[in-house]
Specification:
Layout: E1 2-4, H1 5-13, H2 33-39, E2 40-41, E3 44-45, E4 48-60, H3 73-78, H4 85-99, E5 104-105, H5 114-127, H6 137-149, H7 164-168, E6 174-178, H8 179-188, E7 193-196, E8 205-214, H9 223-233, H10 236-246, H11 255-258, H12 263-275, E9 280-283, H13 292-308, H14 313-331
Parallel strand pairs: 5-6, 8-9
Antiparallel strand pairs: 1-8, 2-3, 4-6, 4-7, 4-8
Helix pairs in contact: 5-6, 5-13, 8-12, 13-14
């Protein structure tokens, strides 16, 4: 079975999957710890990580000439513990002051994915959760931070749906977006950009990960052959073919070495570095079905009221918290990691 983590989690909870631990380890490949941990659920090794997708930061190399004191280029590229949201604020401020305008941008337009930054990046990084700490004191600090950061964010962000073009036009030098939506900028100018892990907050380095895995149904026939297929699909060279043709990222560290120089290597290395950061706090998108749109609305409404309209933080969050929790009560959906 090839399926997303959420589906495999459900299958495993019903006892429908084999424990893959019995097959031993796959030689010649290393899976990042965060992926290994997620594949072990309900007391079994439920799946082998197959492909991932995520959202990252892209830096125009020019921005490295304006780094704030105490932060190095290496810190940013490797996602060291010095690469924090406070440092992003200091960097954005310095760029604004020394280049004569804002150089940080987000896809906060009508079809942009900025909402994923709010619930899957900032919330875990500042509050340790996506949902349950929505109106906590930590959440108030998150919104105070974003309000301050927004002074140095390009005003056109609220019209941008994707960040490739603003990066290519050099309207911004630092951007956050889904890997698929910044790919064309890297393809056109692979030497000018670097893909880096997102900053860390007080609770860790929160980011959304889409994980697809390979599993074997319980009591399925031909299990040895199925394991051979899993072995083939997770070989570094096979993983690179998937990246080239489908745009989903490898789950094995060795795949980066098999990618020839150029845009895909820039992307894959950045994604892999983010996955390998020791303070990773992985967020999975909640399985709310048709209520998914309502979920996103809560965070966008909070952003519009607090950051764009300067309304009171605590009362806004308290009001929206009721709506947010009712979505999980109505659907019976579990709270998403890292909450759960």
């Amino acid at each position: 079975i090839g399926e997303l983590h959420g589906g495999l989690d459900f299958f495993a909870s019903k006892g429908w999957l084999e424990d893959l631990g019995k097959f031993g380890t796959l030689s010649g490949r290393t899976f990042p710890k965060v992926l290994e941990d997620y594949s072990k659920i309900h007391g079994i090794k439920a799946y082998v990580p197959w492909m991932t997708a995520t959202y990252v930061m892209v830096i125009n190399k020019k921005a490295f000439d304006y780094l704030p004191e105490g932060l190095t280029q290496d810190d940013v590229i490797t996602g060291s513990n010095k690469w924090t949201y406070d440092m992003l604020l200091a960097w954005a401020k310095k760029l604004y002051e020394e280049t004569g305008g804002p150089k940080l941008g987000f896809p906060a337009g009508p079809k942009g994915l900025f909402v994923r930054f709010l619930h899957g990046y900032l919330y875990p990084a500042f509050t340790g959760a996506q949902v349950k700490n929505f109106n906590s004191q930590d959440a108030v600090q998150l919104w105070e931070y974003l309000r301050e950061l927004w002074q140095y964010v390009h005003p056109s962000s609220t019209t941008w749906d994707a960040m490739a073009d603003p990066l290519l036009r050099e309207e911004v030098w630092i951007a956050w977006d889904h890997t698929a939506r910044i790919k064309s900028a890297i393809e056109q100018r692979p030497d000018d950009f670097v893909v880096v892990p997102v900053p860390a907050g007080p609770k860790g380095r929160g980011y959304i990960l889409v994980i697809a895995g390979l599993a074997i149904p319980k009591d399925a026939p031909n299990q040895e052959e199925a394991w051979k297929l899993i072995e083939y699909l997770t070989r570094p060279e096979t993983q690179v073919k998937v990246l080239e043709n489908v745009g989903f990222f490898p789950t094995v560290n060795e795949a980066s070495g098999k990618i020839t120089a150029g845009p895909l290597k820039v992307l894959a290395e950045g994604v892999n570095k983010q996955l390998s950061t020791p303070d990773s706090l992985v967020a999975l998108i909640p399985s709310l079905g048709e209520k998914g749109g309502d979920f996103k609305n809560v965070y966008i409404t909070a952003f519009e009221k607090i950051v764009l309209n300067d309304e009171d933080i605590q009362s806004t969050l308290d009001e929206l918290y009721t709506t947010l929790m009712s979505l999980f009560e109505e659907t019976g959906a579990p709270l998403p990691p890292p909450d759960a």
